[in-house]
Amino acid sequence: PVFRLLEAQLQDQRREHEEEMEALKNLVDTMQEELEKQQQAFLQNLQLSPEAQVEFGLQQEITRLTNENLDLKEMLEKLEKNEKKLKKQLKIYMKKVQDFEASQTILPAERRQHDRNMQVAVQRKEKDFQGMLEYYKEDEPLLIRNLIT
């Protein structure tokens, strides 16, 4: 089983390598064709008069700039699409954040009461009275009677 797994991995790597080699060969062929075209254009340019050489050079530069401009326009369109997509996502996330914040501020009455009880309990724990007693004035006779007995 391990041998078969290794053999399968080796075959996959071999296949990937062959595909990469084929892609690189195609790229080299394309580049060679482009180089041959440029060499032919250069040789033709050398045979032209100086004025024709300048005109040919200008035509080549115009063609190059046009292609570059088209590439930049395509890139701009992609970036604008991406910007619109990101703005939509931002709106969705902003709505989610607002909904979450709203749900956090609107607590049920029970929870608010529970929070108040917790605060009161904490306050009582923090107070440390020794020898002091708080009472209502009308309860004073009852308190004195209870202390004496």
Automatic annotation (TrEMBL):
Keywords: Coiled coil. Residues 3-103 form a coiled coil. This is MYO5B protein.
